[in-house]
């Protein structure tokens, strides 16, 4: 019987579950579940938005020229080769929509970011999962997973939720060795947290098969505004611009992002504070018998003895008003992802995990 049915693949999508933000009956919850900037958006971004609230009736810029200019100046990139999206999630969706469809394969890695797989399925393409090596992306495994149908390869670097990354030489080797019809997407949502790493910008400048995606949601503290961007070969950006809705980013979000990226002193302060507390938190957890890989991002993947222990710890933390992220959906059931918060939050979560481990022993 004919009926109303969605496109193939859509019902294979498991709904994305964001980090918890509330606990019933509890005020003053410490939220370390969504990798948000613990210091919030810059004052400059807040003031810029206040100055434009009376313009809500106006349609926003459709070419994002001013924001692309600001991004280009900040990172030394050609603004013509930048596309802005409602979060980098939207740029990822554009890439899948434009370059992968039924019969095509989209590679993502074992513990890779959920939106890579979701966007591939939404486009009707076939997601192909490739094993990692001890929670680190393996270029060899990706290359072994490529076929004549591979159209896109997603690598988050640094990766979420593992916090690990591979070097630029490895990314270059991957780009160099991909089959000719495949495009490498370097998801650089956390690139700003890595000293001396350009997120793959140089590769995306020089090669015709590399695109880099970036976001304002993490270091810039604008997750609620939904602004991200992509950078790559002109021909590919021109394609993506065709599938982008003309008014995909609100005027207030554009204004906030432009002010945020120009507030370099604030960005620097947030980056330094994250590095300091990330190191502290990793060591504090290790002292309590909880191991983690050295993180290159703004979170730590804390590994427990078992799934049962990780779940018990999560429940204990919730009872104390602290929210972290379970990573079962990322094939890491024995781990919890903990965002690096401000100093007080880091001390609190480490202290509680210490109490938990002492009790569990
Ligand atoms: C947070 C995150 C994003 C960015 O999401 P936005 O849509 O820009 O908020 C992209 N990739 C990874 C790996 C992330 O963790």
From TrEMBL:
Keyword Amino-acid biosynthesis carried by entry: yes
Catalytic activity: L-histidinol phosphate + 2-oxoglutarate = 3-(imidazol-4-yl)-2-oxopropyl phosphate + L-glutamate
GO BP: L-histidine biosynthetic process
Keywords assigned: Amino-acid biosynthesis, Aminotransferase, Histidine biosynthesis, Pyridoxal phosphate, Transferase
GO MF: histidinol-phosphate transaminase activity; pyridoxal phosphate binding
Residues the record lists as N6-(pyridoxal phosphate)lysine modifications: 218
Pfam families referenced in this protein's UniProt entry, alphabetically: Aminotran_1_2
Protein's pathway: Amino-acid biosynthesis; L-histidine biosynthesis; L-histidine from 5-phospho-alpha-D-ribose 1-diphosphate: step 7/9
Domain Aminotransferase class I/classII large: 28-351
EC number: 2.6.1.9
Keyword Metal-binding appears in the UniProt entry: no
Cofactors demanded by this protein: pyridoxal 5'-phosphate
InterPro entries per UniProt: Aminotransferase_I/II_large, HisP_aminotrans, HistidinolP_aminotransfase, PyrdxlP-dep_Trfase, PyrdxlP-dep_Trfase_major, PyrdxlP-dep_Trfase_small
Similarity field: Belongs to the class-II pyridoxal-phosphate-dependent aminotransferase family. Histidinol-phosphate aminotransferase subfamily.
Self-association state and partner proteins as the record states: Homodimer.
Name under which the protein is recorded: Histidinol-phosphate aminotransferase
